[in-house]
UniProtKB/TrEMBL annotation:
Identification of the protein by name: Endonuclease/exonuclease/phosphatase domain-containing protein
Molecular function in Gene Ontology: catalytic activity
Domain Endonuclease/exonuclease/phosphatase, chain residue ranges per copy: 50-333
Pfam families found in the cross-reference section: Exo_endo_phos (PF03372)
Domain of life: Bacteria
GO cellular component: membrane
GO BP, sorted A to Z: GPI anchor biosynthetic process
Length: 477
């Protein structure tokens, strides 16, 4: 069972008339466990996405294929948006790559009107719907033929509770001539049309791909197209909707402007500070964009460069560090990946339902966040616990995504402890018995089985020792 995000509320009401915050420490100790598990990971769905122009997949056993597989394994994304699947053989090789990396679901766009390059998705999540958007479909003009490549959209099933994620990948026209920019402006406009499709599923949206434009380039020349270039390919046919725009206010020569109403660019850099995604040119042309519902949950993004492996910081990676040459062997682009938290709809989780039925009460997730941020942070021990939470939340979230048994135990524990949390919300001193302690111990031990040494050490320190020592101190008073 996947628990939902906070429901709208008038805020949490923690009474300050209690004799002391010490009397809330039982609730604090309970919330520590759930805070460490990461309330947002249980409430919302953590998804890692990556976009990558792979240049070519390559045959299994080739240097290109092995390098591509190594980079994607290192990033270990839930969803991969691929650009430049260049041939029928490459489609087969992509299937081999999906199998080797453990991706259960995949879809490849058909050949576009101008060239053989295609886009694709590989996914851990079921692909419940896909669409290969053509210019005729998007424009309403059956004669329109103004897309270099089809725009690929998928809908993913995230939780089994009806929660969905929309993703759109596109590979816009390359080149720097006015005609190239004209075609790129149309293609970004079409991508925006797909994103804003009124018949689209009501779900959070991520757009990504090789946009072949650097957001730092500034105003283009011309800033607005008012006529059709005369050196377009013979089969190219500007859609009637674009022709009407040219005759009126013109077509804005800014691919990012057409996407902005539907999502914002996630800032991403290499660990050395560069934002280049195509090292040879030093330009940033590959992007992940997310809508406001996702951006509100503070996504993080990064450009992965094998040459940065020795540098500190960055998002978590899997497996052993790669040699600097691996990325350049795989592609002339660098992958851009992002850790997203996808808001999900209300389900029938017991704790959520119980609190949602109380007027003027926050959801149980609001409660946990407030206790973590407003109560724990008021004491030195509490601040250490908050630091522990932030230090390990990514690792714990990853465990929850890959260990259903651990997630089940966490949810069961939350439901069992729900009355204590409700008591704290009402200003009543909660109880904390031996069964609670035993359950927390069992969860901590299971979490520690596959934990990093750092997380295991903190579990031992805070859960096994300080937590129960503090309980004894409270009982003594």
């Amino acid at each position: 069972m996947h628990c939902p995000p906070p429901c709208p509320s008038e805020g949490l009401m923690l009474r300050t008339s209690l004799p002391s915050l010490k009397r809330l420490r039982r609730a604090v100790l309970i919330s520590l466990l759930i805070g460490l598990v990461s309330a947002y990971a249980l409430a919302d769905q953590a998804v890692r996405v990556v976009t990558w122009n792979v240049e070519t997949v390559g045959a299994p056993g080739s240097e290109e294929y092995d390098a591509t597989a190594a980079v994607l394994a290192r990033i270990n994304a839930n969803v991969v948006a691929v650009q430049e699947v260049v041939s029928a053989d490459d489609v087969d090789y992509l299937g081999d790559l999906a199998f080797d990396l453990g991706y259960t679901y995949s879809v490849v766009a058909p050949y576009g009107p101008f060239g053989s390059q295609r886009t694709a998705f590989l996914s851990d999540f079921p692909i419940t719907w896909s669409e290969d958007w053509s210019s005729a479909e998007l424009s309403g003009d059956p004669l329109a033929n103004d897309l270099t490549r089809y725009i690929l959209e998928v809908e993913l099933e995230l939780t089994g509770d009806g929660d969905r994620l929309r993703m759109i990948v596109s590979h816009l026209k390359s080149g720097s001539s006015n005609t190239d920019e004209y075609r790129r402006a149309i293609e970004s406009y079409r991508m925006g049309q797909a994103a804003g499709d009124p018949q689209a599923p009501d779900a959070p949206l991520v757009m990504l791909g090789d946009l072949n434009a650097d957001v730092g380039d500034g105003p283009m020349t011309p800033e607005v197209f008012t006529s059709i270039p005369d050196d377009l390919p013979g089969d190219f046919d500007t859609g009637a909707d674009i022709e009407a725009m040219l005759a009126d206010e013109g077509l804005l020569n800014d691919p990012f402007a057409w996407l902005a109403p539907h999502g914002s660019i996630l800032e991403a850099t290499q660990l050395d500070g560069s934002d280049a995604t195509r090292p040879e040119s030093g330009r940033r042309i590959d992007y992940v964009l997310a809508d406001d519902s996702i951006r509100a949950l503070e996504p993080l993004a990064q450009v992965y460069d094998c040459a940065d492996e020795g540098l500190a910081g960055g998002l978590p990676l899997w497996g052993a560090p790669l040699e600097p040459v691996v990325c350049e062997t795989a592609s002339d682009h660098l992958p851009v990946f992002a850790d997203l938290t996808i808001p999900t709809s209300t389900s029938d989780c017991a704790a959520e339902t119980a609190l949602a039925q109380q007027p003027n009460r926050a959801s149980w997730i609001d409660l946990l966040r407030v206790v973590r941020d407003d109560v724990l942070s008021t004491s030195p021990v509490g601040r250490q616990l908050v630091d522990t939470y932030y230090r390990h939340s990514d690792e714990v979230r990853a465990q929850l995504l890959t260990r259903p048994g651990l997630t089940w135990r966490a949810l069961k524990l939350i439901r069992m402890l729900q009355p204590d949390l409700e008591s704290a919300a009402r200003g009543v001193t909660p109880s904390f018995d031996s069964r609670d302690i035993a359950s927390i111990r069992a969860f901590a031990q299971q979490l520690g089985e596959n934990a990093s040494p750092a997380l295991r050490a903190d579990l031992g320190k805070f859960i096994e020792h300080q937590l129960f020592a503090l309980i004894t101190e409270i009982d003594a008073h």
